[in-house]
């Protein structure tokens, strides 16, 4: 073989080898996580949502163009927020219903090596917007959301107004009668405003179908999840499944560790401080001040001491603290909404 030919063969081999070597060196590692295409994920936005945070006296509000987050239930908002983490393989959801939801999605791929660093700046901003929306409902809004859940299951109410007429008669109905009313007491039933009567409110809703055989057993699993979320937002406690409990009674019993382990750090902090708030404790935390200020039952008492806690209160506080510590410690104000990615469950 000539010298020239001997040089050409290795050169040709090098030329053929070089691209594949480069490809081998630069191709993704076998275990590199590739998120599902954004377009394949319902509700996911790859760009920053057209929203802005509006500071108000009680709690921050979020305003979005096109009412992007309006009309969504707490369950829907939780799914929307956690979809952002699920896209990158997060599978450590403590709420069983959330975990079940994502494992049923065709685009979802669990990754034990999940890292929050995978989130883009747009992802983090969108998580923030949704989290603010979840925390910004007033007590009145939450209670009507609660009523809606029952109404959609067919529950009916017997709280129609009773109008007191000037001639001494009493007439029941949603609309004010034409006959003159008793000026001293024109009606009975809440504040005699149509929007406060559930029977009158739902009577005009086109989707409302009252069920004369309604019982709580007819509530769907999704409805029970929503009621659990609403109960905790209102300062009570109910699990996301199982038997429904009244807000006041549920916190009088000793909670179980297994129940608490299904809650997020945000849930746990609110629940622990709800126990104090029910006894009148003031709070230094701006987040807690804003949260409880929206709840009509909260009566701040400057003379509060922990001596007001019952034995069950103390047990529940200690149980909640132990679970918070198990998951890395309680959230602080600076972690609450600035970086909600620290508490995706």
Write the layout of secondary structure elements.
Blueprint: H1 3-26, E1 51-54, E2 61-64, H2 74-86, H3 96-103, H4 121-135, H5 139-152, E3 162-164, E4 170-172, E5 187-188, H6 198-203, H7 221-233, H8 247-250, H9 257-260, H10 265-277, H11 286-293, H12 311-326, H13 333-336
Antiparallel strand pairs: 1-2, 3-4, 3-5
Helix pairs in contact: 2-4, 5-7, 10-12
What's a concise summary of this model?
41% of the residues lie in helices and 5% in strands. The protein has 345 residues and is mostly helical.
Write structural notes for this entry:
The termini are far apart. Mean pLDDT is 83; it is low at 1-26. Strands 4-3-5 form a three-stranded antiparallel β-sheet, with no helix packed on it. Strands 1-2 form a two-stranded antiparallel ribbon. Among the domains are: 38-136, Methane Monooxygenase Hydroxylase, Chain G, domain 1 (Up-down Bundle); 253-345, Methane Monooxygenase Hydroxylase, Chain G, domain 1. A hairpin with a 5-residue loop joins strand 3 and strand 4 (170-172). The protein is built from 13 helices and five strands. The chain has 345 residues and is mainly alpha-helical. The radius of gyration is 28 Å and the shape is globular. The longest helix has 24 residues, at 3-26. The protein is 41% helix and 5% strand.
